[in-house]
Amino acid sequence: MTGNHLHDKLNNNDLSAVLNFFASTQNVPLKVKLAKGVDDHGRTPLALLSAQANIHSHALTSTAVNLVHYNPEGLTSKDEHNNTPLIIARESRACAKIISLLSLTPQAARSLRLEGLRSEYAPFLNFWNELIGLIAKRKFEDCHTFFDRHDDDLVLEVLRYRWSGAAHQVSCVSQNFSDSLVFLALRMVYRHPPSLIDGNPHLGSKTLLQLAKNSMFNGCKEIKSVFSLSSNKVTHTPFPTLLHDYLPAKYHEIYGSYNTVCQFIKHMKYDKAELVELEAVLKPARRCDVCGTFPSKPCARCKCTFYCSTKCQTVAWKKHKKTCKAPTRPPATQAELRSLHKGIALLNMCIQRSGAGDGPTSVVVGFLLPGPAY
Fold first, then answer.
1. Does residue 159 or residue 347 have the better pLDDT?
2. For residue 360, is the peptide bond before it cis, meaning its omega torsion is within 30 degrees of 0?
3. Number of domains in the chain
4. Which one is predicted more confidently, 125 or 128?
5. Domain range spanning residue 230?
6. Phi, psi for 139 (deg, rounded to 5)
7. Which residue has the higher pLDDT, 3 or 360?
8. Is 328 helix (H, G, I), strand (E, B) or coil?
9. Cα–Cα distance between 244 and 275 in angstroms, integer?
10. Is residue 251 part of a domain?
11. d(CA 52, CA 136)
12. First to last CA, the chain
């Protein structure tokens, strides 16, 4: 990468490419030279980054840390308008983490060194090393815990880093089949489909499938099947469908409870009366439709309207008989009601969570949107 290329990548906000460069080359003098380079307006790479740092991301802070480490004096450098990176960042309303980093003096940045800067301002690499270590030790369940524990932005940056290095590491340890292994591979390629075609220069620029097929690693057939997917198919296929096709046992384990909920939602879209009936049975203590007395009992025929006494029911009958009708299907059994009650609780929990693309929320949404369900 040349100085012009580095400036171009920063202008295009291609931070992943910049991070991959700093991670891949061992040529420290080259890194220093590029970090000190200036464009036609006298701006260093750090100043360019400062101008578009208003939205925090792990890639942003990690790139800034590299630029500060390899050119601490860039913190006080000035462009043709006499602006330092800190002034540019403040004018651009940069995120707090970048403002804090750019407020360092060159002396303080040098004393922290790269490890200190990363620990304080961009612990992203620590997370990447953590995931790589778990994969290398074949602790795939812990890898899933890692995915669940961290936010989507961090997970995506970890998967992008070093030419999808984490996914390539999976290819190298995929000899023995396990549900957790294949599930991890599916989660990785679904979160970052380009990993299927990325060639990692540290592993001979081979793709995930080429590594899995390599005699040195000899991945299991299930992993080869997953890594044979095209990035286009992964992009346009819901995650539950991928899981159902490539790991059906795990699909039923994860989505079994939620499928009951989804079937319930799908049915209730077309029979609102039954929803009222179900609610009546689940919550029988309702107020009288005439006088509001509490508690009351449902109409014996429709199960939808409640009365406290025969007197109130007689008063309301002239109006109520126009809409009163027997349910279109037999009343739900107690077992069905308990299952649905549990399902509703699961659904509420599911909807209230932030929806990850590979989580149960996507199943629920699939039933609510037009088109065939999974």
1. 159
2. no
3. 3
4. 128
5. 136-237
6. -90, 70
7. 3
8. coil
9. 30
10. no
11. 36
12. 46
- DSSP E strands in 239-318: the ranges are 297-298, 306-307
| Strand positions, DSSP E, 308-367 | none
- Residue linked to tokens 């699961």: 346
For residue 195, which amino acid is it? Answer: S
Residues 9 and 104 in one domain: yes
Locate 59 and state its tokens. Answer: 């890639």
Which residues are CB-contacts of 317 (< 8 A; sequence separation ≥ 6)?
none
Q: Decide if pLDDT at 250 tops 60.
A: yes
pLDDT, averaged across the chain? 82
Split at pLDDT 50, 70, 90, the class of 238 is confident
pLDDT over 50 (residue 175) = yes
Residue 18 lies in a domain: yes
- 122, 152, 174: which is the final residue of a domain? 122
Instruction: Out of 61-70, 125-134, 220-229, 257-266, pick the least confident.
Output: 257-266
Residue 62's CB: how many other CB atoms inside 10 A? 26
Please name the residues in contact with 57: beta carbons below 8 A apart, sequence gap of 6 or more. 15, 153, 157
d(CA 191, CA 2): 31
**Measured between alpha carbons, how far is 279 from 332 in angstroms, rounded to an integer?**
11
CA-to-CA dists, residue 251 to 239, 255, 314, angstroms: 10, 6, 53
Shared-domain flag, residues 10 and 104: yes
Contacts of 188 (CB under 8 A, 6+ apart): 159, 166, 167, 170, 195
4 CB neighbour count, 10 Å cutoff: 11
Closest CA to 167 of 207, 110, 123: 207
Give the per-residue pLDDT at 43.
94
Q: 298 forms bridges with which residues in the sheet?
A: 306
Only one residue has tokens 């199960």, namely 303
Beta bridge partner(s), residue 200: 206
Q: What is the pTM for the complete model shown?
A: 0.60
Which 3 state secondary structure label does DSSP give 286?
strand
Residue 86 has pLDDT above 80, yes or no: yes
The predicted pLDDT at position 355 comes to 42
Token pair recorded at residue 55: 């939205």
Task: Give the separation between CA 97 and CA 94, rounded to whole angstroms.
Answer: 8
